[in-house]
Specification:
heterodimer; A: mainly beta; seven-stranded mixed beta sheet; four-stranded antiparallel beta sheet; globular; B: about 110 residues; mainly beta; about 0% helix
């Protein structure tokens, strides 16, 4: 498709399990972002890639969170040893140009993670 | 710290006009975005302001005053499909988007 896709759309994990969330950005988009969105809140920045380089990971809440984009297209956000506070919607967004441009970010539908 | 303030919820009538305000305090400013988010869906881009003034795009307009740290989104001729959350986001000195919590807009017939 033409938009950003994410999989799975819904994930239920037991506390302590590892999860991997996938993002397929729009083809040709240089920038890729991961956000965490709690119910009734705005997105919170997690990390940013420019092509395959992870230029900013200041928003990752702990070392249990890891993201990669090895070939500069598809990205994976991995959460190890999930905790209940990790329950949220994880949004991926891509943008045509570098982060300092005015180009808008295009969002995927998100992955709703529930940790039980 | 960095802060974006928006009203939590607003109610308006179909066919009317509504103004959603956003005030911000951020470390640096490199533009302000407005996004629309329907429940359970991804945010979609509405507008971008980097200079002071009004940007008009169909039924939607967005205004920015950098000196006041203030923006508003104006929606005219409201339709039922405009019921959604409206998110204000500011790009800070690190070019990172700082997001408000969103304003839930309820449209009544």
């Amino acid at each position: 498709g033409a938009g950003v896709s994410q999989s799975p759309r819904y994930k239920v994990a037991k506390r302590g399990q590892d999860v991997a969330l996938r993002c397929d950005p729009i083809s040709g988009h240089v920038s890729l972002f991961w956000y965490q969105q709690a119910l009734g809140q705005g997105p919170e920045f997690l990390t940013y890639f420019q092509n395959e380089a992870q230029l900013d990971k200041s928003g990752l809440p702990s070392d249990r969170f890891f993201a990669e984009r090895p070939e500069g297209s598809v990205s994976t956000l991995k959460i190890q040893r999930t905790q209940q506070e990790d329950s949220a919607v994880y949004l991926c967004a891509s943008s045509l140009a570098f982060v300092d441009g005015s180009y808008e970010q295009y969002f995927g539908p998100g992955t709703r993670l529930t940790v039980t | 710290g960095q802060n974006i303030d928006q009203p939590t919820e607003m109610t308006a009538t179909e066919g009317a006009i509504v103004q959603i305000n956003c005030t911000y305090q951020t470390s640096g400013f490199n533009g302000l975005f407005w996004y629309q988010q329907h429940a359970g869906e991804a945010p979609t881009f509405l507008s971008y302001n980097v200079l002071d003034g009004l940007e008009e795009k169909g039924r939607f307009s967005s205004f920015l005053s950098r000196s006041k740290g203030y923006s508003y989104l104006l929606l005219k001729e409201l339709q039922m499909k405009d019921s959604a959350s409206y998110l204000c986001a500011v790009k800070d000195s690190n070019y990172q988007l700082i997001w408000g919590a969103g304003t839930k807009l309820i449209i009544k017939p």
